[in-house]
Amino acid sequence: MKKALVGLAAAGVLLTATGTAVAAWGAPMKDMKSGGVLFLNGRYKFNPADTNHGAFEWQGDLKDDDQHDGHNVYMQARVEGHGWVRYNGKQNRTVSMHHSNWDGAQRYTDTAYLRACRDRGSLRPDNCSVTQNFGQDD
Fold this sequence. Notes:
Elements: H1 2-23, E1 27-28, E2 32-34, E3 37-46, E4 56-64, E5 72-79, E6 85-88, E7 94-101, E8 111-119, E9 127-128, E10 132-135
């Protein structure tokens, strides 16, 4: 009986610690939406200079919101002083994303931008959500 109680207590502590670690990862971001694309459950954080290159780290779920349009979706990320980086999703699916962006010339990144887009091919311009701006002091 005593061993069972100790085991139960240990399992409770482990589950509590795991839940706290998951909940503590980064700050939530607003969902991004544009015709045919959704980015949901987004979270971000700015890492300190000695962690992951001092990167802007982000994660979330990229969803093809119009599975009958025949177009793919993608995310674009940019850190201050650099161009946009593209992360492709999957047509007709929701893809979990987790990426880091940084400037190798700086010890840490303090300004970043994200947007969700639908690739409409070469004849029509892509459509993107409103660009979200993230600052380390926000």
